[in-house]
Design goal:
Layout lengths: L1 H25 L4 E3 L4 E10 L2 E10 L8 E5 L2 E6 L2 E3 L5 E12 L20 H10 L1 E8 L2 E4 L4 E6 L11 E10 L8 E7 L5 E7 L19 E2 L2
Antiparallel strand pairs: 1-4, 2-3, 3-7, 4-5, 5-6, 7-11, 8-9, 8-12, 10-11, 10-14, 12-13
Length: 228
């Protein structure tokens, strides 16, 4: 009689353990909580005379603040305030910012021709470089890639003070992209091209990628608009 009770108790315990394990396996294993700005990983830009790094952030009001990504691989879902979320908001913003400087020469012992009036890195030359950059914006998903529609970019260069020798020159790009009806499982791919057509870098903005360990500062552009 005592043996039966022990066996019955062991069987119930084993069943409970199996049920707990099954529930644990059914629940999403990975969870990522986002903040107001979703970081965009840093990319290096090198175009002949100029070199630099750009990083930035994805945002849209308070949409991303508190948004959670659950699961991994093909089993991903998004929730906010305990409610499922499947699509991006009607519009999203991507801000990219960094600093450029003239690239060092490949010749041994050569220095960098920093910013100073009259040389190849004068304010006029830097503005020409900025204005010559081209961009594309595309939505990427498991089915392929398609161009984003009706997006715009604002290019900004800091002119609030005189440049000096050895300056690193701030540059800023602010993208506005319509995203009505776009699934959160899509990623926005922004590519930067030199005036020659050579691709300099591709930035990935979205909520699928692992977040960079260091969150970049978001800098908003305030000057002329250009659409490419």
């Amino acid at each position: 009689m005592k043996t039966r009770r022990v066996l019955k108790s062991a069987l119930l315990s084993a069943t409970a353990i199996l049920l707990v394990a099954a529930c644990a396996n059914a629940a999403p294993k990975n969870k990522q909580r986002f903040e107001l700005f979703v970081p965009v990983a840093t990319q290096v830009i090198k175009s002949g005379q100029y070199c630099g790094r750009l990083s930035g952030a994805l945002s849209s009001g308070e949409f991303f603040d508190g948004l959670q990504r659950l699961g991994n691989g093909r089993h991903i879902q998004f929730r906010k305030d305990a409610q499922p979320v499947k699509e991006f908001p009607p519009n999203i913003s991507v801000a990219l910012a960094g600093k450029i400087t003239p690239c060092p020469s490949d010749a041994p012992g050569s220095g960098i021709n920093f910013v100073q009036p009259g040389n190849g890195s004068s304010q006029q030359a830097v503005n020409e470089f900025m204005n010559g950059l081209k961009f594309t914006a595309e939505w990427k998903n498991p089915g392929g890639v398609q161009p984003a529609a009706n997006w715009s970019v604002t290019k900004s260069l800091s002119n609030d003070r005189a440049w000096h020798v050895n300056d690193q020159i701030p540059m800023r790009f602010a993208f506005q992209v319509p995203s009505q009806g776009v699934p959160l499982t899509n990623q926005l791919m922004i590519s930067v091209y030199a005036p020659s057509g050579a691709k300099l870098a591709t930035f990935t903005a979205g909520v699928l990628s692992r977040l960079p360990k260091r969150h970049p500062k978001t800098i908003r552009g305030e000057q002329s608009d250009s659409r490419y």
